[in-house]
Write the structure tokens for this entry.
Amino acid sequence: MAKKLLQSFILVLIFTCIPFSLFAQSTGKLVGLITDAETDEPLIGANIYLDGTSLGAATGLDGSYVILRIPPGKYSVIIEFLGYKKITYTDVEVLTDLTTRLDVEMQAELMEGEEIVVVAEKKVIRKDLTSVEARVQAEDINRMAVTEISDLLSMQAGVVKDGGGAIHIRGGRSSEVSFMVNGISITDDFYRTQSLQIENESIQELQVISGTFNAEYGNAMSGIVNIVTKTGGKEIKANLDVWSGDYLSSRKEIFWNIDDINPFANYNLQGTISGSIVPEKVTFFASARRWYDDGYLYAPLAYYPGKWEDIGGEVQGVRVEGDSSAVSMNYRDRWSGQFTVSWNILSELELNVDFFGNTEKRKNYNHYYRWNPNGYRGDEEYGYTSIAKLTHTLNNTTFHELTLSYRYNQLDSKLYDSLTDSRYLQSSDSAFITPGNSFSVGGTDLGWFERNSQSQIFKYDLTSQVTKRHQVKTGLELKLDKVFYNDINLEFEENDFGVRVPVVRDKTKLSHTELTREPIKFAAYIQDKIEFESLIVNVGLRYDYFDPNGKIPSDFRDPNIYAPLRLINKYNDLNGDGEIGFDELNDNNLKSLDAREAYWWKNTKVKTQLSPRLGVAYPISADGVIHFSYGIFQQIPQYSQLYVGDELKVSSGTGTYGPYGNPDLEPQVTTMYELGLQQKFTDNLSVDLTGYYRDIRNWVTTASPLKTVLPSVTYVRYTNRDFANVRGITLALHRFFANHYAFNLDYTFQIAEGTNSDPNQEFFALQGGAAPTRILTPLDWDQRHTVNGNLFVGGDDWGLDIIGRYQSGQPYTPSSSTAVQSGQNVQGSIPKNSRYKPIQFNVDTNFFKNFDVSGVALQFYIKIFNLLDNDNPNGIFSDTGLPDFSLQELIITDAAPTWFIHPEYYSPPRKIIVGTKISL
């Protein structure tokens, strides 16, 4: 431990002594050469600045200039030099992490005050792009048929959405994606999910890096989603977006109550305002949103959870019939907001403060509770993130930043807040016990769960354009996490009045898991971007340090400190002979928990990693670029796999217990290779062709059962043993907007194979008597063919945006049903994931019309999702491969009516929303 800390301290000194650095950026760079149009001589001292900002530079001895730290967006760039005509280039686009080049030839001024205005050419290809990425700008989001960030992600090449809606980038598990906002991670490491909802109206640029990302990005193996939010400007601007709508489908046999149309069942109210508080000094941006979606999976309120009644002098739980009114079983209700302040303290000193917050209530469909929807719990999630960044510009080529951030996220999943609420009822308390293949007619969900995560992030960044060719970055980050987890399954006991009431066992029992853990992460990297006319190289090295601050038992054959199996751990050794004699086997001689704590645990090991990254872009012509990239990407497993159940509360009863968390897991590792081509065909049309290969090792899975001192008792922990590989090719065609239309079309062929899709699959397979998986099989999200298309037609006054998606089926493991007459089900020896689900095809549209009323911009629009109302099944019965029929229907004759109708097996039906935007 001490040795690892010393090594880390030495690396810190090395990195901090290098006078240039940066972590994940949210800015871009503008460079160029200013020359005389007639003589081609460089102009020394010409001024270049971005209109409406304080950013600018002067040319050097060779006429070149560089402007760093430019937020993404489109700018008007002004070039001035005494005796020459002033030139203004409009629509100069700057992108995060990339270099925009603007070379200018200036003409001598014949008359004072002459000015030239030029519209900058769209960069059809990016010559400094060394790996594949996708970018969506604010103006694109505004016209597209999307409402959520997940809609934007699912449109990108190499991105697959599984049946549960989780995002997979280039064949990796959904937990391998890192989400960032303004250079700060907003990934909740407990489940590796996005902890903060950033609304589309707040996004200035969305960057999705699916290729081999640079060393500045860490703790992710598949991709980076980098969001840069909007900031305020000189003028006051305000925007209000209001829409409402409902689902509209004729498939009443699948979606019960779908024909009850309510135009206000789903609604959105969102507003933004930005501007200047103190001219030239303080600007702000604020947004707020209320969004409600009543869902499309309704259930009839056939039964209430039940109630207690005195029946013949005995208090019993009784069944209570409902009124069959419609209850939504997949609603979502969200409030969110953002407030950003930028303060130019001095010309070279700027402070930016961001605050994001959101709260959301939701319910996820549960088929068992379809007749008793009020008996099933929902989720409530809320959190906030604050970011304070102080930027000090040392000169035109060097600046450094100090960033502090605090993030809090909480998830509650419970039916009632109080654990002892008398409304909790067991299903058996309803005087009617439902048979198998039937719905709940009483009782409540007895799970009660709460979890919160806190993160404190400290970063120091500095970047410098060391020479004309080299931009070197290095950076440091310290992240202190604290996670709290409390998972309870309620049990019942009779009180003094004979009423069975819920009780909470203490955390030493199997029904109660409660923990607090405080892991530490530290990272440092160095990276050099080398730019020549004919070659661009990104080379970097990243160092990661992780201390799980965990503990593991000293004796894995007797792991449960609360209920030890060895007698020496259960009783005090009074005579010190190392054995427990008959005279010591009594309840008065039980060893205390504190006594066992003294020797029971040992500390986990610190994990350190070095990850090299290399990217090369080689322009083969003025219109074509070949790129190659390679990198090793390492990621700490999600905290739930490290800590949940890490106390190993194994019972003395016969069986295999688990799976339990393992705080000593190693980092997961991916080695990625990529080769690609960008080719410009016309001034508005380009094609990208990319091939990639990913080798994944140390994936988390469940280990073989560990033995205890009792031969009949074994248990399973998580371990690093699974592996996978992914190979694919992507062909993308981009047509930039001109002559009233634009389009993007991409095709991805991908094979994603591995030993297990989910870490728990191995455990359940072992429970069923199967042998450990040792071969590669298709992963659950192995979608071989994906086509995404986006067409926009229109102009300033109106527009039509169409998004189309074709997805080949994802795999499943078929099951066989035999011996129908005897009612027996037999699972045949069928390879895992050897069949594929039906294909999916979806079309979304957005039509809008703009008006100008006395200087107020109005937009009316209608968006239709799943325009054709296609079934698009994402779940199926494994014995038929169909979403609407199972052979079990022929076998089980006493199943509840509609039990085999699963509306959650289908994608959302057609949804229509109508809205208006008002902009000042």
Observations:
- Residues 294 and 449 are 24 Å apart (CA to CA).
- The first helix runs from residue 2 to 17.
